Amino acid sequence: MSNAILMSSGSDIDFMIHGLFPVDFFGNEVWITTSHVCILIVMLLMLALGVVANIKMRHATEVPDMLQNLLELLVEKLDGIVFGTMGKIAAPIYRNYILTIFVFIFLSNISGLFGLRPPTADYGTTLSMGLITFTLIHVAQFKNNSLKQIWTDMCSPLPPWLPIWFPINLISEIAVPISLSLRLFANVLSGTVIMALVYGLLGKLALIWPAALHVYLDLFSGAIQTYVFCMLTMTYISQNYAAE
Amino acid sequence: MNITGHDLIMACSAIGAGLAVIAGIGPGIGQGIAAGHGAAAVGRNPGAKGDIMSTMLLGQAVAETTGLYGLVIALLLLFVQPLG
User: Fold this and answer.
1) Does residue B15 lie within any of the structural domains?
2) Which residues of A touch B65 (CB under 8 A)?
3) CA distance A88 to chain B (A)
């Protein structure tokens, strides 16, 4: 298993997803891949973080120590971002979700630093997150608008009795999860490919200086893409809430 | 030397992958324009540096998407080999 997951500095270039073992899923053969294992590791880490945070905040002190400071900073900053983007009505509904995907995508993106293959470099992961966003957008849309209003929006530049623009608006709605997921996937994958090429082709020469590449490709790019994904999710969802 | 049909498809896929990453020109120009305007905005109003930075980075990351589509196509052609 460790050979498949760890991106060791061998002579071969290796950035593909490896199947570990097949399982029978309602008569179909489904492979458990390294992406599943990496997602599980990230999720266990998040779970541990959540449990530790819960225990910590139960015994919260007035003068915060290291961990409490960190947790309060994270929650406060993200609450600020969510409230600033979504407004007072929508923000309390979605802030837990945004915090969860923020932590998940960030930990996934930087897991390349710890020798894992980032789970977000698998299109299955990012497409499912894009589809969750798509579902949330349309649940919010049908909750907050009447059917007549939605129809008017879908025929938007022309009057509602002339639905010539309807197919084009439909395509632009369907393009939302695809562009969201491809953006995240391609960014993380390009970082993974470049690091695999550096380690695979240079071998022994890649000693200390690839740390700079890791800082840019894993940390900087990963953080920016996390922010972009959460920001776009919030913007798309809050379009369906009337401004207060 | 015998060139089979599969070899021809592989060679053409490699050329196609090279052509697909030409898409990187667009985001390069776009991000440069965004960064230039960001620098001008910081010069005009240094107090708003934080807001300008975050807006600029968000816009650049969104503008990057079209180039990444080209990259995805190139990687598909090279490693998934849908045609061969």
Assistant:
1) no
2) 179, 182-183, 186
3) 21
Token pair, residue A160, equals: 């509602």
**Which string of DSSP letters, residue by residue, matches B40-65?**
HHHHH-GGGHHHHHHHHHHHHHHHTH
* Chain B contact set for A231 (CB, 8 A): 58
Kindly give, in sequence order, each residue whose CB lies less than 8 Å from that of residue A215, ignoring residues fewer than 6 positions away. none
CB < 8 Å from A in window 62-81 of B: 62, 64-65, 68-69, 71-72, 75, 79
Domain span at B60: 27-79
**Residue B7 located in a structural domain:** no
**Least CB–CB distance from B58: residue in A186, A190, A231:** A231
CATH of the domain at B43: 1.20.20.10
Domain residue ranges of chain A, discontinuous segments joined by +: 2-238
Q: In whole angstroms, what is the distance from residue A110 CA to residue A121 CA?
A: 11
Number of domains in chain B: 1
Let me know if residue B73 belongs to a domain. yes
- Each residue's pLDDT, cut to its tens digit, for chain A (244 residues) gives 334 334 444 456 777 788 888 888 888 888 888 889 999 999 999 999 999 999 988 888 888 888 888 889 999 999 998 998 888 888 889 989 999 999 999 999 999 888 888 999 989 999 999 999 999 999 999 988 888 888 888 888 888 888 888 899 999 899 999 989 999 999 999 899 888 888 888 877 888 888 898 899 889 989 989 998 998 899 899 888 876 5
Domain contains B58: yes
Residue of A nearest to B65 (CA): A183
A234 close to A82: Cβ distance less than 8 angstroms: yes
Q: Could you give the ipTM of this predicted complex? A: 0.77
DSSP label of A160: T
